[in-house]
Task: structure prediction
Amino acid sequence: MAENFHKPTLFSANKFEAFQGGDDPAYISRVAHETAQALLNRVRSDPDPETVERLVAYTDENGIDAVAELWSRAAPRSLPGALWRIYLIRMLIRQDPEGCAFLYQRGTDAAATIDPLVAGAAVPTGPAEIMVLADEILRGLFTGDFAVALDRGAAYCRVTAIGATSIADDLELTEPHRSSELTTRALRFSTTAAEFAACARLWRRDSLE
Result:
């Protein structure tokens, strides 16, 4: 990675917005794919509840650095790329549950799609509910339908993008700098949503590697 993170890592919204995704596949480490596949196969073949919960909460105690070192360089539409982004989204939510819940609830109110239902957060969605959603999505990668978990992650990102865009519109005249930040964040969430959706389609075709 370009930065050396120190435990525990605080991965700010600005860093998320600056994150450019994985490198070209030619630069992806074979280790990223091997570790992602080995971890997922082992846990899904024997989903011991304690092991699953340790994996879900791994970054709470260890920071995001170890996960980033393994998978952050992987292409977005790959197994390690999907795992990295789900862990990253969860980290962002746990570091700012109030802000994430606010954007998500605003997006829920403004959405004209079924995305809030697909994401599956409790309504109304406050900080506690948004953290539960993050855990459910990550846990679903290990114990449930992997593609459905990715679809839920994509829906969360789309709803949050709608919320960020809506608030950006409100602030365009009074706080243009903040409006621009939110617009950038919305674009990043929209991009991540598309990556999750693509990974879900690949998984259903047994082509996510």
Summary: Residues 1-12, 15-24 have pLDDT under 50 and may be disordered. The CA atoms of residues 137 and 153 lie 6 Å apart. The two ends are 21 Å apart (CA to CA).
